[in-house]
Amino acid sequence: MVHRVVLSRQDGLEVAVLTYGATLQSLVPARRDGAGRSVILGFGSIDGYTRTTHHYLGATVGRYANRIADGRLVIDGTTHGLSRNEGAHHLHGGHVGFDRKVWEIRRSGCEGAPSLALGYHSLDGEEGYPGAVDVEVEFTLVCANTLRIRYRASTDRRTVVNLTNHAFFNLGGEGSRDILDHELTIDADYYTPIDEDLIPTGAIASVEGTPFDFRGPTLIGERIGGSFDQLRLAGGYDHNYVLRQSGEQLRRAALLAHRGTATSVEIWTSEPGLQLYTGNRFDGTLRGAGGAAYGSHAGVALETQHFPDSPSNPQFPATDLSPGETYSSITELIFSGHPHGVGR
Question: What percent of the chain is helix, strand and coil (3-state, nearest 5)?
């Protein structure tokens, strides 16, 4: 059975989470007038999620978020064939990844702060991955305008783990136009270029002098339609950014702002990468909770994670997890311009 759990704070955020896919269904920031719309894309019923297999709206994705080339994973000299659900390649955990599993409610309550912990046990061999993995994701409203997402995982056999949430933001409100008028800042000097199959080439390239330079506030739509080869390959942005190193547990990854509603979200994370995806594959066939069709660029995903295809690129940060170790990752979403440190 699928459950829907609502977390809320008085005069603050309201978040709805589905146990199907550990999915963020809606996220409504506090508004001065007490009204507001969800600022992430989502469906109004469970049918929308079960019938859709390739957009991952708000879902927790894994066992490996993003792509693994040729569905090929080599660990300790042994090759494991992963399911291939994007042509010849493996994407977001395969045909039936974590986004299509019903998670169990492990903890919920409001003591200290409203929170919900969901768990899932992934069996050895699931989608081709070695080792059984126990994974938990916890959603917490740590203060009025901050949502913290914490991931933990353990395994009984050496494997790889890379988890993220695949929310698509539209700060104008779910179902409003597109995100091309959103201002985006990404705290990264480098990104990882891709080939024609959207697989990283292995290079780490400077954003200097390219449409990938978001080091200062820049409209998403300002350069998205240019002739730059990397934009052409993806039909927009679908690229991993190499976040700047930080001595703190969390580093700022990005700031997304919408002048029309005076709404912003600042993203802090313990992860080394951020995938920018501008909803290039939305084609108007999906309709969200409010009935609006999701056309091209209806939302923007800012996925905190390790790099795509890290198992094939030893120069990328490693994603290996061994018995006795704990995978741990934190991402915080701070809404409406609240400064770093609120709720931490």
Answer: 10, 40, 50
